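tool_call: predict_structure(chain=1)
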Amino acid sequence: MSTPQITEAPRERQVGRALAVVLALLTVFGPISMDLYLPVLPALTADLSAATSTAQLTVTACLLGLALGQVVAGPLSDRLGRRRPLLIGVAAYIVTAVLCALSPSVETLIAARFLQGLAGAVGIVIAQAAGRDLYSGKKLVRYYSRLTVIGGLAAIIGPVLGGQLAAVTDWRGLFLFLSAAGAAILVAVLVVFRETLPEQERSSAEVRQTGRDFRRLLSDRVFLGAVLVIGFVYAALFAYLSGATYVLQGIYGLSPQGYSYAFGLNSLGFMIFGFAAGRLAGRWSEKGTLAIGLTMSLAGAAGVLATSLAQLPLPAMVVSLFVLVSGVATTTPPAASLALAGYPDIAGTASSLLGLAQFAFGGLAAPLVGLGGAGTSVPLGLVAVAATGLAAVVYAVTIRRRAQAPGREIARNEPLDRTTASL
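tool_result:
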């Protein structure tokens, strides 16, 4: 039997606390952009004399921009390095936030929100790609678990902060606040962020190379499986985000304060289980942790559907949603690590496909929750069960089955380091 070729382990660098904070801040672009102004959405609708459905397109436009922007920014960062595209993206975010604040009509705001999503996507994808530049192995899994925790924290802070700011300003002021936050992050990037992808490690500048990179990634069954798993579980998560307010307030009669408590509980679960998943995957098994997360997600989704069909009391719904959201958080870090571990040379391109799956699948699933009207939670349960069920099938067919193939782990995973090679 031939001996696999052993190469030197990828470079691991010391990451200072300041850089770690900046990378963390970059991940909040998406959640904060979507959540901060939700408390003033009704006021925005009235101020611009728009229909409710039209005003909701401002959320959809941002999601679409966040999805498509990553597909552009990821490959560019593999060719130009991480720093230049990041500076351009953050600067563009500042400008587009001002455009949102100055929008004279809802149609203009929808267009500005799409552009804001495109700009915000740069920070998200480069935070993932830069992590892949700096970490490998167990440290990489822990890094993605931190990103998951920060995303959950942003989901908690966004609506709360937006509600507090709404007491002193209108919806236009909230977008100006986002612009100011972008300016602060731009200063931090200029001062702290140094290039994480050396020039000699960058991909070819040929445009055709991007297509070859995408084909290379999508031909890898494990990578494709991890992308689809993340896409499907995020479809369930966005279905929850879209439908929970109608279910908990409209059907179960919670007050806005009561809803905020339930929302905060689920976001806390997202943070805790996201952190725990990174630790568990690093010490035990990425694929095993992923399987646990998918089992939790499917169980929570089934609980939501059963509660809806049987019209069970509020505690059953709250527990089911908690298990669903916590399962998504448990699934994300090991899935992201499995997807990116084998592609240090095109980490930006690989990260862009992960981001595309998250926001595109989520954006498609969110409107489906409202098909049955505001008086039933059955559509939420159906969407969640379908999405998590498909994620479990994809895992079984791609990641689990492929991982059992003889010799596959050495062929795709990180090169063994010199210490390991000598054992």
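agent: The chain has 17 helices and no strands. Proceeding to next step.
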